Amino acid sequence: MCGATEGGLPLDGVNVAKEAIVQGQVLRSGEPVGNAYVRLLDKSGEFTAEVPTSASGHFRFFAGDGEWTLRTLAPKAHPVDKKVVASIGSVAEVVVSI
């Protein structure tokens, strides 16, 4: 059984057993970054999806099994790439520091 890290996004209504979830938070100097963008790139680097972060810096993707790259874009910051592995039945929690 797997769930989100304490303080992460709630998973109410999400059947984690049937999903490969990648979620997390974007931080700058330990503070949440709202209105950043997080892109989901496949193993070959192709763009798959993009979401804005919430006011609390949180984001979530429902991905397929496999290796992914999260590319975070935010004002006054260089893009940050972070590798993540998603698998059905688990939640990959990621903290991105910019």
From TrEMBL:
Pfam families: DUF1416
InterPro entries: DUF1416, Ig-like_fold
SUPFAM superfamilies assigned: Cna protein B-type domain
Protein name in the entry: DUF1416 domain-containing protein
Naturally occurring in which organism (per UniProt): Nocardioides oceani
Lineage: Bacteria, Bacillati, Actinomycetota, Actinomycetes, Propionibacteriales
